[in-house]
Amino acid sequence: MEGFKMKIVVCIKQVPDTNEVRLDPKTGTLIRDGVPSIINPDDKAGLEAALRLKDEFGAHVTVITMGPPQAKMALKESYAMGADRVILLTDRVFAGADTLATSTTIASALKKLDFDLVIAGRQAIDGDTAQVGPQIAEHLAIPQISYVSAIENKGDHAIVKRSFEDGFQMVKVQYPCLITALAELNEARYMNVKGVIDANRELEIETWTFEDIDADPAKMGLKGSPTKVKKSFTKGVKQAGKVIEGSPKEVAMAIVDKLQEKFII
Amino acid sequence: MQFTLSNEDLMMRDLFRKFTENEVEPIAAEVDETEEFPVETVKKMSELGFLGIPYPREYGGAGGTYWQYINCVEELAVACATTSVVVSAHTSLCASPIYEFGTEEQKQKYLVPLAKGEKLGAFGLTEPNAGTDASGQQTTAIKDGDDYILNGSKIFITNAGYADIYIVIAMTDKSKGLKGISAFIVESGYEGFSIGKKEKKMGIRGSSTCELIFEDCRVPAANMLGAEGKGFKIAMMTLDGGRIGIAAQALGIAQGAYNEAVKYVKERKQFGRSIGQFQNTQFQIADMKTKIEAARFLLYSAADKKQKKMPYAQDAAMAKLFASEVAMEVTTKAVQLFGGYGYTREYPVERMMRDAKITEIYEGTSEVQRMVISATELK
Asked: Does A182 contact chain B (CB < 8 Å)?
């Protein structure tokens, strides 16, 4: 459309790049020291989707993240991939937030921005809750489509593919809206050489603190978090399973025998 | 002296490593086996800005540092020596002399598309009778009106056939000896310029290495690089820079073979334990690691001096001499640690050993490097 430039905000999270997440046994929080950090894979797919819309329709892409100052690296990477503006939400008041307090904080920041489309990743590999994206949409009272594996921009609305394990839905959604992206949505692009240089020499990362957003401090950070982690532990190692082959009847009998042998039935 | 990498450097290295891991490593064996120039990879590298890293933005480059360019060559070579030399020959041997010695008009016309990666570059100095003794140039360039007419041939030219722009060294006045040699910018489409025989090589087999043939090839006088008679100096100064690129390639090859060796000795079991638990293996690994790091320091020091516009010719020669000999030694040791498997094409170390050898030969043999290094000492 003539003169129309779609405005997209992508919400990302910096996460530790490891499957062996170590937890502090006392606090139940992640030990981040010594673990390389990456942009959460679902979020990166969301960023790539936004950048593809930019390539095709000339969108303006803002990337926002809430986290400690180190999260600037994830924002620099986003910029080096092609984002136009990056914002870091960081304040001691935000620390220790559960999904509700996090979504409250991010939604408050989004209210300060102009957008047609908000893209969040489905879920973060360090928390796996898949709650923050949908909660942001609720706070903003805009439609939300989760588990998106394809996006087609149609000007004032989008046709998106919502994927499930056993099927999919094609959904038409009016802007402004929020979608949560699956890592399968696309293959994210690399940073480029000029982007890396600009991200380090030219880019000024906007840092927003509690002062910059209108929100109730009681609803943020540890104070605003109804979720209390009682105990965290590392799962014990289980023995490797055994695959029993044969006809369904034989296999069922073998299982029954095994259960009886162990006095389970 | 120590090298501290900035955030920007670390991000850049991360980019080069990811690209190498995803785009270069998976096809490295195939590129070697088929001897096919990695056209698609070069296209991807050009889109990401790998072909103009150290040149200013005003000339189409990324405005990066010399170390960043060197690190790009190094990281690519960890998986594929062929891919790394495409970047090195393009950047150090073609774009560099135009940047250093070209007129503003030449820079706009040739450096900009080279640095943007829209065009690929090559460099022609070596002839059948002018190898280490590069002064014996037989290709001639005779002035004719507003043109020079080139006749003769060049051999062993990297990127030949795929490059669009060539720096060609030719004799403009034989009576003046070294001062009768000049440098020209030649476009691939010029009439009378053709690509001859393609070499079948031991290593870097995907790299295109061919003969350049000039038969009454008209080159506009405006395409002369630097003044008439300055060609030999331009060629020698270009090779000083090129040597840092080859040192980076050699270091990458050594690092690649070392990485493979470390992985293998941890897994391979003989006499009831992994071979990494034997002291002989541990000592080999220690020596390989130490030499690689020493080569890295020499290389980064030379790159740093070039970046700071300090004299670096001797440093470049030392870095190239040492890194290429380390590459040969480390890859040979890696094959030995792998035993019989190392000799097969099941594993990449035999390819790395074949690739390493050329780094002791091209852009000045190890013997030439020793001449350059000692000349500074004994003058």
From this structure: no
> H-helix or E-strand containing B44?
helix B39-48
Residues of A within 8 A of B6 (CB-CB) are 200
Query: CA separation (Å) from B194 to B36, B143, B160, B188?
Result: 20, 20, 10, 8
Confidence check on the interface: ipTM exceeds 0.85, yes or no: yes
What are the structure tokens assigned to A145, written together?
């489509």
* Positive/negative CA dihedral, A40, A46, A47, A49: positive
Concatenating the DSSP letter of every residue in B285-354 gives HHHHHHHHHHHHHHHHHHHHHHHTT---HHHHHHHHHHHHHHHHHHHHHHHHHHGGGGGSTTSTHHHHHH
Q: Which of A193, A199, A201 sits opposite B53 (nearest CB)?
A: A193
CA distance A151 to A192: 24
| Distance in angstroms (rounded) separating the CA atoms of residues B42 and B203 | 19
Chain A interface includes B117 (CB < 8 A): no
Tokens for B377, please give them: 């000492």
**pTM of the predicted structure, to 2 decimals:** 0.91
Q: For position B228, what pLDDT does the model report?
A: 96
Those residues with Cβ within 8 angstroms of residue B332's Cβ, 6 or more apart along the chain or in another chain: B353
Chain B nearest-CA distance from A104, in A, is 32
pLDDT given at position A243? 86
Chain A residues with CB under 8 Å of B9 CB are none
Nearest Cα residue to A33 out of A79, A68, A80, A65: A68
The predicted pLDDT at position A20 comes to 54
Q: Is B64 on the interface with A (CB under 8 A)?
A: yes
As a whole number, mean pLDDT of residues B253-260 equals: 98
The answer to whether B58 faces chain A, any CB pair under 8 Å, is no
d(CA B204, CA B71): 19
- Residue pair B49/B87 in contact by the 8 Å Cβ criterion: no
Report the gap between the CA of B304 and the closest CA in chain A (Å): 18
Task: Report the pLDDT value the prediction gives residue A83, as an integer from 0 to 100.
Answer: 97
Closest CB to A197 among B19, B48, B62? B62
For the record, the structure tokens of B23 come out as 């785009």
- Cβ of residue A188 closer than 8 Å to a chain B Cβ: no
Contact assessment for residue B122 and residue B98, using Cβ atoms and an 8 Å cutoff = no
Residue B284 sits at the vertex; the CA angle it makes with B282 and B285, to the nearest 5 degrees, is 65
* Integer Cα distance of A103 and A112 in angstroms: 14
Per-residue pLDDT of chain A (265 residues; tens, 9 = 90+): 445 689 999 999 998 886 556 777 776 666 767 778 899 999 999 999 999 999 999 999 999 999 999 999 999 999 999 999 999 999 999 988 888 989 999 999 999 999 999 999 998 887 778 888 899 999 999 999 999 999 999 988 999 999 998 999 999 999 999 999 998 899 999 999 999 999 999 999 999 999 999 888 888 888 889 988 777 776 777 778 888 889 999 999 999 998 998 888 8
Only one residue has tokens 């091209």, namely B362
Integer angstrom CA distances of residue B364 from A63, B28, B125, B187, B321: 49, 26, 11, 25, 9
Q: What is the pLDDT of residue A238?
A: 77
